[in-house]
Amino acid sequence: MSPVPANDGLADVYDAAADWHERRRAPGWSVADEAALTAWLEAGADHVDAYAAMAEVEAVLDDAVAAGGLEREMAQARAAFAQGRARRSRRNLALMAAGLAGVAVLAGLGGLAWMGAGTSEQNFAAAPGQRSAVVLADGSHVVLDGGARLTARIGRGSRNIVLRNGRAFFDVAHDPSRPFEVSGGGHVVRALGTAFEVDLAPNAQAYRVALLRGRVRVSGQAAPVELTPGQMLAADGQGRETVSAADVAAATAWRDGRLLLKGDALSDAAAEINRRGGRRIVVRGSAKDLKVSGAFGSDDPLAFARAVAVIHGLTVGEAADGSIVLSPAKDTGATAD
């Protein structure tokens, strides 16, 4: 195919997007590869668009092959691309990207083994004690807290996310034709063009949805509930639900590595840090009931412990298993730090 100078840059982006999709599904994909992909996606909106379009390539090709018109559609896509009209048609861009990557000219569909029934599946996990920012195949952005895991299945008519544990913040790409649903903890959250958090407690006995903007509909054991910005739905282990006003920005501060406390018990603050899976904080004796207020970094448990110790005159020690121990000054049950 002859190159088209006016579109070379865009062609390169879609060629790279196709390559990223193939590499991600090949054996040996690593954490470093995931970081490199995230960096590539964040380098420009056109990268996100191209990656999302490639997630639909399988559906487009399946339709074309089924209709016996793959070569005709590829020719039409090339013509649209050359005339500068491809930007207005994701279908043309997807076909063009497939041609640039060389996947559409393979005999049969053997070269498309990584594609399945028009659906792209991605699995993500954040390492203990570390946040992870990822971009889904549809362009939605997700921040996973330490230890969180999810599976995303993006198809032609749906976007289904399964949060397996932990908590995640979703900034959903607007696409009314494909509802975005997050399931987990016995609930399903449906959203369109929305930013919200879904939180599964470590012991799976609690569930929370906090809405920052947009609109969501939460379905569980009770009747479906629609939330408005600034509202939070919480459910206990028996499925009892409550909806209340909340400082959602503060509740989701973890995604920026911050912990905002407003008179919280020290034991609760420690539990909030511990749930991320990093170095644990153990609070002993009367120190458990001390009230803590302020903004703290949540990525460094030891720094948090030392700051609280200064405020309340506590002792910071280390247990035999490496845990950080906060205790009243007279408690000598751990080695002083």
What does this structure look like?
By secondary structure, the chain is α+β, with helices and mostly antiparallel strands. The chain folds into three domains: 5-112, no CATH class; 120-251, Sandwich (Jelly Rolls), CATH 2.60.120.1440; 257-336, Phage tail protein beta-alpha-beta fold (3-Layer(bab) Sandwich), CATH 3.55.50. Helix content is 30%, strand content 31%. The protein contains nine helices and 20 strands. It has helices at 8-25, 31-42, 45-55, 57-66, 70-82, 90-101, 248-251, 266-274, 301-312, and strands at 120-125, 132-135, 141-144, 149-154, 159-165, 167-171, 180-184, 187-191, 195-200, 206-213, 216-219, 225-227, 231-236, 241-245, 258-265, 281-283, 291-297, 314-318, 324-328, 335-336. A seven-stranded mixed beta sheet has the order 1-4-5-7-8-11-12, with no helix packed on it. Strands 2-3-6-9-10-13-14 form a seven-stranded antiparallel beta sheet. Helix 5 (70-82) packs across helix 6 (90-101). The radius of gyration is 24 Å and the shape is globular.
